[in-house]
């Protein structure tokens, strides 16, 4: 049990008052900045990089870990309360969480998100502590064909749960796919669909689309149909806590979300998007209350939030054990290591055990800290909804604008916000589902790049797409998702 | 998200709600137009590639073609009298009549940053946007809204600029 | 009242953060925070400050995208003729301008100093049949398409290094099966799991994995062997190729001559300062200094060389 004693030494480091203070500071900063749409942990840590000049490495990394987890908590808060997901990872949370908040169960939604994040974060940290080297190896196992199969699985599973009108659902999906092709094509270096606008060369900023469709579209829509009668103010009931029923319905999604999120976070092209989407569809399939989905099902918050946090912890594994940055956040953390003249990887564990184990121990501490911060705060956050509607919606628009402006500083993006916001308005009036647009935008480019990489490496032979056991299995499951409901219908019809 | 089917008769009784025109062919036209834009752009891109087989143009072509086909299907659906039930949101009912002045005020609020963000900075932009949205939701305490908006804008600017975000100057036009 | 209460915690955090200095000099960092160009600009000015060469405030602007062309276009529009406006850029910008038919012309800017370089290495998996660069090139020659090679973005420095290697070995550049990867991490995993026959990337991204015994580095694009990396150069292996991912500083177009001379001098002083030596060491950057007008000639040469190779690769007309 050498790991255990090393971990205990780590706690000795993490629990020093100064380091506790940095963990707290990081958690608060992360939560605060996570609230602003689009400003995620990567940008926040990048902005904090200058502290590496003055702060000791252990303390700095403990703070960064706090930012990383804190931003996840902060992002779920805005998704749930004001329907403004800032990152792809909290998009699925908004779907059910906001419905819950609007029906007076905001505190329960925030609580299941916070506790789910805590559970996922803690399990993931335990896995990080004891199984890191083994988990890290899966990064080398995944090939482009496997990634492609994974995106196909996410696509088809989402398509099945899409909405009432197939045609409108697919229109939304294809609009997302088209948006996803905007910008320089990674494989050939050619600009696509940019029409000479240089601001579009880097593609459509996901934040802009997310914020515009969810927040701006909603503001325009509600403004045009606002019921300004006195009962518009929904009394906030059941603020305090999750009910017994909520607990019963939450714990399994937490665990399943963790199981999905953690390994995918460790993959170079994994990210938090696919695990949160898969978690959402999985919960929807497994739920005993599928009719509640779309109207505020707690499983739809618990699962994706756990998956999101577990994925965030997952990125630390290849970073710490191999020196392999698998996400933007990890790349920034790597830059921070380099600022100290340190190189993460297997040698870091022997050369700087105090730093590594202090950081790992601080993840436990940070998780507890965030839970303590967020559970009581949930009640306060929910009170945001007690702000009179005119000022509440006004505040949402201002924050949406600041998020977009803060990420890019581009007037073109602000104009995109208006245009896409208008589209969001039209989609609400004519009942087009919103989520498929974002799924197309997020998964389309991933699927395309991995498909083309797989084919190029296999010199155009399509058999390469099922050449690994994993890709064959995933593609089979994806096909079953599509075909089984149709077959069942046929069988029923002929019976 | 999906609506319950049994909402439809209610809407019919309410006189069609906000959707006055029962046949919004323009919706399908927009979808087809978007598809054509993609197809036009894809036309100038190579569809194939040396080793992958799939070139940079293929996905654009697929997206464009898909939109055109789906637009045509939607056109047929509309011609057959497809119903569009506006989504129910909190604070808003799909069957409510559209309040166009309020809509355009909110739209103006979203447009304000495009015009003013660079020139007169975030705090004043936030103040104007805030007041316009509040107004579109029926708030008539314009002075208070201006004050609230200014507070939100100034606090957000100070906070996030200190954290290192680039939010532009406080009042660029005056040189701050 | 509730509204103001909600803002209170934000105000508390605001007081936690420190203030920003008053700015006189505008520096464009045409990349997102945290990356190489961002680091180059910020570290260089920190070192200028530490060495006492230039201690006044600096205002950094990050505008990322498209190999720096978006940031430089903005810089040109806003800062032309200004006395104290500088921008960071590098080898990748040269290719990106050509690839994206960007309206920017690097000759319009005033070349202040080339500062650093990172050399590239080519590597194969530890269990690869290729043990030397010559063997890899022979394999490429025998079946170019079957040996997929990964690296950074299409038309980027990695791609150009491979194209130059192919040219030196009489392999048609258009035949190369070059697969751009989204990140160095994906190149490494692709090489290790056999998707890619070889990968090209900066030394810092590969060395770690060579030390772990996962990949084998076959060659480096530097003029001489690197300290701490026992690997032959491309030249030693018989291919006359020398490429670096260099980074430097540009002055605004039309910067007055007096100011220009001052900035060239300041960066020359920086290059000799111990503060800068420390930065180079911790960041793992190679010193690659070239001042003023000579740097201008170098940029023009790179422009011609990269333009020609992109044409050969079928990426530019």
UniProtKB/TrEMBL annotation, chain A:
The keyword Coiled coil does not apply. InterPro entries: DUF112_TM. It comes from Devosia psychrophila. Residues 20-438 form the DUF112 domain. The chain crosses the membrane at residues 20-39, 45-71, 107-132, 138-160, 167-184, 204-223, 315-337, 357-381, 393-426, 432-451, 463-488. Keywords: Membrane, Transmembrane, Transmembrane helix. This is Putative tricarboxylic transport membrane protein. The lineage of its organism: Bacteria, Pseudomonadati, Pseudomonadota, Alphaproteobacteria, Hyphomicrobiales. The keyword Zinc does not apply.
From TrEMBL, chain B:
Pfam families: TctB (PF07331). Coiled coil: none annotated. The keyword Methyltransferase does not apply. InterPro entries: DUF1468. The keyword Transmembrane helix applies. The chain crosses the membrane at residues 25-45, 57-80, 100-130, 142-160. Residues 26-163 form the DUF1468 domain. Keywords: Membrane, Transmembrane, Transmembrane helix. This is Putative tricarboxylic transport membrane protein. It comes from Devosia psychrophila.
UniProtKB/TrEMBL annotation, chain C:
Residues 1-23 form the signal peptide. The keyword Signal applies. CDD domains: PBP2_Bug_TTT. Keywords: Signal. InterPro entries: BUG, Bug_dom1. Pfam families: TctC. Belongs to the UPF0065 (bug) family. PANTHER family: TRICARBOXYLATE-BINDING PROTEIN, UPF0065 PROTEIN YFLP. This is Putative tricarboxylic transport membrane protein. The lineage of its organism: Bacteria, Pseudomonadati, Pseudomonadota, Alphaproteobacteria, Hyphomicrobiales.
